[in-house]
Amino acid sequence: MAEPVFLAIDWGTTNRRIYAIDAHGTLVASERDDRGVTSVAPGDFPAEVAAIRARFGDLPVLIAGMAGSVRGWVELPYLACPANLTALANALHWVEPRTAIVPGLSFVEDGYGDVMRGEEVQLLGSVAAGLAPPDALICQPGTHCKWARMVGGSVAAFHTAMTGELFALLRRHSLLADFLTAEVVEGPAFHAGIAASADATLLTALFGARASVLLDLRPREDAASYVSGLLIGSDVSEQALVPGQPVHLLADPALGPLYAAAIGAYGGRPVAIDSQAGFIAGITALWRMIDAR
Amino acid sequence: MAEPVFLAIDWGTTNRRIYAIDAHGTLVASERDDRGVTSVAPGDFPAEVAAIRARFGDLPVLIAGMAGSVRGWVELPYLACPANLTALANALHWVEPRTAIVPGLSFVEDGYGDVMRGEEVQLLGSVAAGLAPPDALICQPGTHCKWARMVGGSVAAFHTAMTGELFALLRRHSLLADFLTAEVVEGPAFHAGIAASADATLLTALFGARASVLLDLRPREDAASYVSGLLIGSDVSEQALVPGQPVHLLADPALGPLYAAAIGAYGGRPVAIDSQAGFIAGITALWRMIDAR
Questions:
Q1: Which of B78, B166, B207 sits opposite A160 (nearest CB)?
Q2: Which of B175, B217, B235 is the closest to A108 by Cβ?
Q3: Closest CA–CA distance from residue B32 to any residue of chain A (Å)
Q4: Residue A113: enclosing H or E segment and its boundaries?
Q5: pTM summary value
Q6: Bridge partners, A105 (sequence order)
Q7: Are residues A171 and A73 in the same domain?
Q8: Which has the closest alpha carbon to B235: B213, B263, B208?
Q9: Is residue B195 part of a domain?
């Protein structure tokens, strides 16, 4: 097995993924844990990285994600779109001689602002690895679903939808909470939710999801799938897809089929791509740029 | 001062209003407290009403609202729309010889269901008192905003939007919470939120409210008003108002001006009506019908 030449950390809010990568950009070892930035005390980041080096090798470390946020190691300014891998490499912030943090991206248009931290590596890496073409619409579902327009291999524009967070809020804290305990499945109730999203009456349809159960119009165990379809359908409808438009999907196995169904219902053509492969390709491209200097 | 002839209770989830009303339908005394149905143990409702009679007079009692829900005194079936005051009087449920609960209403159309408990008395009373015409669109803002179509003095149809609850969820539990601490005012930020609601991209605009503060595009203290404008604007836009359409508003002094502004922005003509007068007129009409029997 090849020796790793650098380590990459995708440091999220609640979770963290560590990758040891060889000179060919091949994954040698990886680990996932729950040491996200909110569980690391300010000032403890150097010790965390030293511990990672002790386990995976005394190598250069590239960090993407929330380590560059106000809750992280050091708050980095966002790099403005359009941005490509070269711009990202030039904006790396060295917190130690052999440890750098990748900045997030910002997008501003007509007074509307948006931000991301971490997703940019997956996006640019997916194009670099040929998983998505240089001009593409890429969707990254999650707590905050990102929709990025790639132009000539750069992130030209992006929008974030609060879809996943809103579903979690409704499930945990709302009047609907008792109705949303079932697992979400891509079945008839989910598709009924997508269909309802086309009416653009989200605030009304959410209340109706509960009322329809009270009135025996819909089984209680269908409500979670219906509401998920309503939210994911609304999210996709906000993107105003052109018929037949390919949408490259960087999604986990749970959300991928749900977004693919909604994208299809709105006339788009979902194309699944492997998000870990995208991240590794992107972070390796960044490492090669700095290693060559 | 005239003597009261009956007592009315508007028994909500968290609050309760008690009214002593004379033979002319004039308010003699009233009281508001926080003994909503969720703070009354099952089985304690008779004692609560006995205590109210001890304070206000040994009179017939008519109860509207959540006392007829699964968390209340007894769960009553919903009365189906269209429904007028006569239908409501015929469907009163007597829990004691001189104590009746008004049932709530349900509305079903094309597989969509909706329910209300308590608002029906204000709606029908507003028309009975001449505060709104027999054919009208009436809006009752709140945690769950009701939009009722009155036809010939009956509640013909209604829809409920989760507007107020969603704002409270975002303010208390979401990633936006830290950004929404300021008071909502009907100023430029609120109107910017209404304008953004016209793009029908609510899920995206919600995330943008936070990102725009992070990117210094909008002052942090404006975010609450902007998000309120976005939600109330979305709520009004879902009603598809016809230009110049009067909308009768049964609102408290906090929400009234906000909804009036959004209704105006969407081409409607807001007409404020007094919600307490509507309730008293409705409950008095019901009392007269049963008293005449």
A1: B207
A2: B217
A3: 24
A4: strand A112-116
A5: 0.95
A6: A79, A116
A7: no
A8: B263
A9: yes
Distance, C-alpha B89 to centroid of its chain: 20
Instruction: Record the tokens describing residue B223, joined without a space.
Output: 């975010």
Instruction: Work out the minimum CA distance from A6 to partner chain B, whole angstroms.
Output: 32
Omega within 30 of 0 (cis) for the link into B257: no
Would you say residue A147 lies in a domain? no
DSSP state of B124: H
Query: Which helix (H) or strand (E) element contains residue B112?
Result: strand B112-116
Does A114 lie in the same domain as A49?
Answer: yes
> Residue B68 and residue B51: Cα distance in Å, rounded?
19
For residue B174, give how far its alpha carbon lies from the nearest alpha carbon of chain A (Å): 7
| Same domain assignment for residues A8 and A114 | yes
Asked whether the ipTM of the predicted complex exceeds the cut of 0.90, the reply is yes
CATH code at position A207: 3.30.420.310
Do A99 and A183 fall into the same domain?
no
Question: Cβ contacts (< 8 Å) between B259 and chain A: which residues?
Answer: none
- Same structural domain, A33 and A113: yes
Three-state SS for A182?
coil
Confidence of residue B139 (pLDDT cuts 50, 70, 90): very high
Let me know whether B72 and B168 are in one domain: no
Domain tally, chain A:
2
The verdict on residue B283 lying in a domain is: yes
Residue B205 domain boundaries:
161-273
User: Is the pLDDT confidence value at B293 over 90?
Assistant: no
Which pair of tokens denotes residue B130? 């001449």
B215: which DSSP letter? Answer: T
Residue A133 lies in a domain: no
